[in-house]
C-alpha cells in the first residue's frame, strides 16, 4: 500500500489572527492518527509558477487515512478558520509503493 500526502500551499495570507486560531485547532485533529510532517513552512524558493507564502506536506499511511483525517468533523470545523486567514490550495496525492 502506498503512502498518501496532503500538500497545503498558502498562496496569500489575509488575517494573522485567524491563522493563529487555526494553528491551535489543528494539532488535536491528529490525535490517534499516524501522520508525519515532512514540511511545515520551512525555507522555500519558488522555481516555477506563482509565489507561495508557505507550504506544508503531511504524510499518511494511505489515501483512505488521509481522507479520513481531512473529512473528520474535527478538521472540517477548522477549515473555515483556515480559509478566513489565507487563500490555500490543498492537494491529496498518492505516493509510490
TrEMBL record:
Q: Which ranges carry the DUF1330 domain? A: 3-95
Give the domain of life: Bacteria
Pfam families linked: DUF1330
Kindly give the InterPro entries that the UniProt entry links to this protein: Dimeric_a/b-barrel, DUF1330
PANTHER family on file: BLR0684 PROTEIN, PTHR41521
Name this protein carries in UniProt: DUF1330 domain-containing protein
Organism of this sequence: Rhodanobacter ginsenosidimutans
